[in-house]
Amino acid sequence: MEYIKIEGQFPKFSNCAVTLGKFDGIHRGHRKLIQKILEHKKEYGTTSVVVAFVSDRQTILTGEERRLLLEDMGVDVLLECPLNEQIRHMKADQFIRQILIGSLQASFVVVGEDYRFGYERKGTPDLLKKAGLKYGYETEIVPKEMDGSRKISSTFIREELKKGNMHKISELLGTDFFVAGEVEHGKGLGHKKFFPTTNLVPPKQKLMPPNGVYVTVSKFGDTEYQGITNVGYKPTVGEDFLGVETYLFDCDEDLYGKDCIVFFRKFQRPEHKFASFEALKAQIARDIEAGHAFFEK
Ligand SMILES: Cc1cc2nc3c(=O)[nH]c(=O)nc-3n(C[C@H](O)[C@H](O)[C@H](O)COP(=O)(O)O)c2cc1C
Ligand SMILES: Nc1ncnc2c1ncn2[C@@H]1O[C@H](COP(=O)(O)OP(=O)(O)OP(=O)(O)O)[C@@H](O)[C@H]1O
């Protein structure tokens, strides 16, 4: 996949199947749109392009995680465009002419039914459709993917993430919430005093569920390990950064420096400050038991 961070002008492409939005999280609704551009590519040989508008607020997926996911899905080009003043002030018809037609030579554009773009959010799916008739591209407007009576959206997922409702989040995303990163060294206390663990440090940009213990699955390439993960600052020992620390079941490999993806299945309990290492160790043993019980179910 070609990844381009827009810093000024959009690059030139031709014959593109394009979808537009913020694409934070890549939920089931987003997947439908992406599937449409991939199908169009398969049928007509277009270049599948995701245009993702990014701001500097915290996100469900980091930029890197989104790249991994879209690449995995088979998208050809990801154009990451900062929501700066220039873009915010661009009128909808100018966006269509300059970017969709001028830069991307779009032949297919797909958006959700309530998508808005351009200055004062005046750009609508209907406007895209009308312009398509004039400029010769096809438009597909996708009905909102629902969860019961509520539309699936990144906002909905953010709310559930705050509550640590990992099961609901998996339903909305169509996959488990995950953290991707390289395994780092902890203080090494885990190894000496407790259990061996893998440590990831998510960037501050990443929205995380509440600090606490989660049942997880960690992936290293094609190898998967079930495990139990603590998210937080380890108040018993005191850490000054938020870590994602996992005890992997049935693993005695040295995984330092390896790329890892931790998939969150279930919230188990909040993080506590324990009076002694012994008390923490006893609790971690119970967490591990609860993790095993979850997977045996
Ligand atoms: C399943 C699990 C649960 C944990 N729960 C807590 C907790 O509630 N409070 C806490 O202070 N640390 C908790 N920890 C973190 C331990 O304090 C940590 O493993 C230990 O300090 C070793 O850290 P190190 O590998 O960075 O040396 C937990 C770790 C694991 C793997
Ligand atoms: N549930 C959905 N079903 C179908 N399409 C959707 C759905 N949600 C969003 N889309 C479409 O996906 C594209 C990207 O959506 P975007 O990420 O901007 O919004 P969102 O997921 O609703 O997030 P937020 O809650 O932050 O507005 C847009 O074209 C949007 O209309």
UniProtKB/TrEMBL annotation:
Coiled coil: none annotated. It comes from Blautia intestinihominis. Keywords: ATP-binding, FAD, Flavoprotein, FMN, Kinase, Multifunctional enzyme, Nucleotide-binding, Nucleotidyltransferase, Transferase. SMART domains: Flavokinase (SM00904). Pathway: Cofactor biosynthesis; FMN biosynthesis; FMN from riboflavin (ATP route): step 1/1; Cofactor biosynthesis; FAD biosynthesis; FAD from FMN: step 1/1. This is Riboflavin biosynthesis protein. Its EC number is 2.7.1.26, 2.7.7.2. It is an enzyme of class 2 (transferase). It catalyses: FMN + ATP + H(+) = FAD + diphosphate; riboflavin + ATP = FMN + ADP + H(+). GO terms for molecular function: FMN adenylyltransferase activity; riboflavin kinase activity.
